[in-house]
Amino acid sequence: MQDRFKALITNGILLTLLLCSPHYPVNAQGGDAPKSGLPFADGDRILFLGDSITQDGRYISMIETYLWARYPAHNFTIINMGVSAETVSNTTEPGHARRPWVHDRVERALEISNPDWVFICYGMNDGNYFPPRRDIQQAYTRQMGRLLERIEPTRAQIILLSPPPFDPVSKPSRNLLPPGEPVYGYSKTYQLYDDTLVTLGGLALGKFGDHVERFIDIHTPIQNYITSARAVSPAYKYGDGVHPPIDGHLEFALAILEGLGEDRAMAYDLLHQLTGVTLVGKKPSVTVTNGQEGLIKKIAARFRTLSKTYRDHTRIETRSKAASLEEQLQGADQSEASIREQIQSILRKHAH
Fold first, then answer.
1. Is 270 left (phi over 0), alpha (psi -120 to 50) or beta?
2. Which residue from 193, 191, 215 is spatially nearest to 203, judged by alpha carbons?
3. Which of 195, 217, 297, 341 has its CA 20 to 30 Å from the CA of residue 165?
4. Is the pTM of this model over 0.85?
């Protein structure tokens, strides 16, 4: 499938394919089979850049929790610098205040994080909630290429994520518009906006798939999950159609972990055991362990506080008011030690 997809790119008919097909290849890596096994080394620093879904970051905190549990002897530093409403393209739909732009802060973000790995997840806002448009696509690919170029001198490995899906069923019908309207936006979204996101993801794969360490398609598994969840529970809501609910964040995390070479079923069981979160219609093979509720609260509190501090230090408008990064990191280290100990305690109890 990937070879056929790559050939279609070469032949210049990618856009036609994307507009006719709901999916693109999963976990592409230079047109070859993806590497297997976690690619991170002990001590690696891992930066996440993205929009409001990444700022929320529950999928990132789940990945971090998984790494603490699965690799207790390793020290990974997870740095979440997602910013709500942000784009890579520097485009904004009519009637909306100028959206934040990653290029306004990426230099500062890289300086603070000193990353070994950079995850990039943009697209939801970059399509401006319009049908596929050439000018938007050109801005997205041009500025994404520029972002990769700005990361390159750090020698960090880049993992590019496809845009996640848009689910029109979960968005109130009054906030959806049919094809043919002159103007769209977040509050009046093109009802087939997911086509726009698939197009952007396919263009990113075609243009940058050979230039990043990994391209992980998160769109397909999340979209498949929405479909299967709705088959089990017809009233299922994927958040507001843009921002995933907690189970959507779990699927998000599982898609990334699988793309990194981890076993999906094992990751699901482990994260369910530690967080209590379940995918609709997908029963885990383990039960929730005592102590889970207190653990997830501690993880969430640490993650939110640290992420806000990182985020505030990258933006001119919040930098002067940001909490001390050094003090926050010291507190986070102490909290991490406590959380890691509690995770291993829970796992030991479950083993017995």
1. alpha
2. 215
3. 297
4. yes
Q: Do 36 and 261 meet the contact criterion of CB atoms below 8 Å apart?
A: yes
Distance between CA atoms of residues 165 and 48, nearest Å:
19
Determine the CATH number of domain 2-265: 3.40.50.1110
The token pair at 333 is 């280290």
Please state the domain extents for the chain: 2-265
Distance separating alpha carbons of residues 195 and 113, to the nearest angstrom: 34
Asked whether the beta carbons of 298 and 338 are under 8 A apart, the reply is yes
Q: Please, what is the Cα angle at 217 between 192 and 16, to 5 degrees?
A: 50
CA 338 to chain centre: 27
Q: Looking at this protein, which amino acid is placed at residue 57?
A: G
Q: What is the pLDDT of residues 9-44, one digit of tens each?
A: 443 334 434 444 444 444 444 434 444 479 999 999
Q: Tokens representing 193?
A: 């906006």
Rounded CA gap, 100 and 87, in Å? 6
Residue range 293-313: mean pLDDT, rounded: 95
Tell me the backbone φ, ψ of residue 64, rounded to 5 degrees.
-60, -45
Could you give the CA distance from residue 118 to residue 160 in angstroms, rounded to a whole number?
8
| Two structure tokens written together for 12 | 């210049």
- Tens-digit pLDDT profile for residues 59-103: 999 999 999 999 999 999 999 999 999 999 999 999 999 999 999
CA end-to-end span of the chain: 44
Total Cβ atoms within 10 A of residue 204: 25
In the sheet that holds 214-216, the strands lie side by side as 77-80, 45-50, 117-121, 157-161, 214-216
Token output for 264: 């999906």
